[in-house]
Design a protein that fits this description.
About 30% of the residues lie in helices and about 15% in strands. By secondary structure, it is of the alpha/beta class. The chain is globular and about 70 Å long. Bound molecules: NADP nicotinamide-adenine-dinucleotide phosphate.
Length: about 525
Amino acid sequence: MIGAGAAGLYALHRVRGLGLLAKVFEKGDGVGGTWYWNRYPGARCDVESWDYCYTFSEELEQEWEWTERFPAQPELERYFNYVADRFDLRRDIEFNTRINQARYDDEQNRWLISTSSGETVSTRFLISAAGCLSEVNTPHFEGVDTFAGQQIHTARWPKGGLDVTGMRVGVIGTGSTGTQVIPQLAKQADQLFVFQRTAQFAIPARNRPLDDDTLEELKHNYHERWELKRSSSTGMGRRPTEASSALEVDEATRNRAFEDSWARGGPGFARAFSDVMTNPESNQIASEFVREKIREKVDDPDVADTLVGIDHPLGARRLIVEIDYFETYNRPNVTLVDAAADPITEITPQGLRTTEGSYDLDLIVYATGFDGMTGALLAMDIQGVGGLALRDKWADGAGAYLGLVASGFPNLFMITGPGSPAVYSNVIFSIEQHVEWIADCLAHMLENGLDRIDSDPEAEAEWTRGVHDIAHASIIGKTDSWWTGSNIEGKPKGVTFYLGGTNIYREICDEIASNGYEGFVFQPAGKPESV
Ligand code: NAP
């Protein structure tokens, strides 16, 4: 297995349960994946703690006590460490070890893996739990090596923290990460310059500590929440609401609904009405509501204009959940630079230059995101049947049958791979579904003497077409963002995750498994021909 984040830990637990020997290679020196690497100040999950956790063990659910609605990075890292200890996982994890190459040997039907520690390992099955947001994206500005100060990507924040007291700090990027780190750095830095290229919608988190009554209710309702997660299209344990179209109600009713949703906070804002994501007119009304709310928070109208100059519909990029973000621009030590009108041109020894100005800095923080969905997989040299490189297979766009197995790469399972709901869902719940499907598939193979699984290229192509068709019809597919791969130069553009709903996706996966794994091709042990 590749990676000891949420996916790798659970995969290890389940694969061990099949009686197979298993080993996880993890490039960091601890578990937690995203929550190991993203330790920048303000790092916090924007899915509620009671949803962003494993459900596979009722004991675990009953033992663990979340302290906040939206858990912060240290608490999440503690959680994954607790899980690693609770299920005795560490003994099969090799830390500080990156997988450089994985090569499928057709004759032996084995994956040959080369690691950064110089080891070569041979395995029948390889499971990627490398993560959808683990390959960092750092733009290549001219002069980047000449900078005399310190430069850091938010996903590489030092373990011991970074004291920015008295520093002149530049932050590039105002996505979910930038929005979290900026208010924290502003409290310490002498001066903070924020370079915003694309203004984005953000909804207040309304984070809060969880009191005893809430915790008791959460533990009591464990089963009901699990059912809700399974039936929901995003894997969240919320009770469905009877929302109508935003256009069916009068203005006063509509405003009340938006006000209520705003007051509740969190990523569910768009659910105030059923058609915010599908009807441009409803979306426009919701967008204006949020713009107005942002304006109210910002003292300087010019700064507010730059913050609400949003060029895409609400929800077309991942909705940001913020704490004190917009108010931060009212601080005297914070300057917003409109990097769309005045782009960054180069890094200099003293700081950073834009077309119209220059900024002297001691620290440059890159909150510039990730090469999402495929970045971590393609960072390794993965070669399938006949030496076909995964990079070449995906040169014009990534896809795998159900997001699980890419044809020509037998016995390589991808957890939350391209073609699955992955990042458009409560990802930890999607991870569990994938791990359980893979474990069942492995059990099926063991029971039936099958030792090779591949996907049928036609089934894969049809699935991938379906994924694209749904995406093209949605506002997400029409908007540039990391969701469409447009943040990475040279990357084929397009949504690679399934937007049809996690509940529907699960049904399809289960149906395919119960139909004898339709669309997959198995080979029995010792026989060269496919059956
Ligand atoms: P992101 O959404 O891709 O944002 C990257 C930011 O960097 C954008 O503002 C982007 O501007 C800017 N940028 C990139 N290259 C630039 C350049 N050359 N010049 C100027 N600006 C540049 O990345 P992220 O904020 O790390 O978030 C990625 C995802 O991680 C989120 O959508 C979410 O799924 C996850 N995440 C979740 C949480 C949470 O749970 N709260 C927190 C952090 C991240 P443009 O928009 O113009 O490209």
